[in-house]
Amino acid sequence: MTAQIIATLLPVFLIAGCGTLYGRFRTPDIRGLNTLNMELFVPLLVFAVLADRQAPLADYAKLALAAAGVVLGSGLVLWPVARWLKLEVKTFLPPMMFNNSGNMGLPLLVLAFGEQALPAAVVLFIVEMLLHFSVGLYMLSPHTPLWRLLRMPIALASLAGLAVNLGGVPLPGWGLEAMHMLGGVSIPLMLFALGVRMLDIDFGDWRTGLLGAVLCPLSGLVLAWPLIVWLELSGLQAAALWVFAALPPAVLNYLVAEQYRQEPHKVASLVLIGNLGSLMVMPLVLILVFTHVYPPG
């Protein structure tokens, strides 16, 4: 089991470390890379996985509901905590709710459980992204029109992939393979970009960042257990939800806070210190999963 955990986490941190090392000596256009990834490579991966008729998407409906419960429930659970500690709710809650299901979640789930985990990982990623660009934007700006969600390439790719899968539309194998290959670029690129972002850590708000590094995974894990029992999730889907629930805040929270001028320096601390904290949290969660939920092999 120790070897499995090392084999899972080591590639994640090595690739992110390469991004940090490269960013230390160069100044890569990380925003341009992220735009390319989110507008081309990730939508192709999402479409290819959802459109592949070998993935019975109806089997993942309960997992999607559980993921939504973790995301939205984290906000409800931590709202009174934020008020009690006199934290700005719009600054603190979104990073606690919207986790790093892309940069860390996708590669971590695939490395931990193999390629058979990719459909579950994509479903979790889509749920988190759609909620982030609907509920998350509404939290920061209640007047944001929700129709903007449909302009996102990921949303369009999700709808198209679901239509192809559920409609039984046959796609040529060579086309799916090309999209899988291009989409496969997105996973290491997410980790590399995350590593570059780690250079921007601001320890000026380290207390808030440390608090978030504890409460973000804790709130998710507290919610995951009753959801797994209630929805009767088991095996790979239960294991995937445990990992999803423990993920740190998404880097996207910082970009959104910057766009809406919602104390981006504090959000940066929450995001980046939270991701550093995952170095301790994720091994513990994987021990739990491999021991009690989904043993390796």
Automatic annotation (TrEMBL):
Compartments where found: Membrane
Superkingdom of origin: Bacteria
Pfam families per the UniProt record, alphabetical: Mem_trans
InterPro entries, per the entry: Mem_transp_PIN-like (IPR004776)
Transmembrane recorded as keyword: yes
Location, primary (coarse class): membrane
Keywords on record: Cell membrane, Membrane, Transmembrane, Transmembrane helix, Transport
Membrane-traversing stretches: 6-25, 32-51, 63-85, 152-172, 178-196, 208-230, 236-256, 268-294
Record protein name field: AEC family transporter
Lineage of the species this protein comes from: Bacteria, Pseudomonadati, Pseudomonadota, Gammaproteobacteria, Oceanospirillales
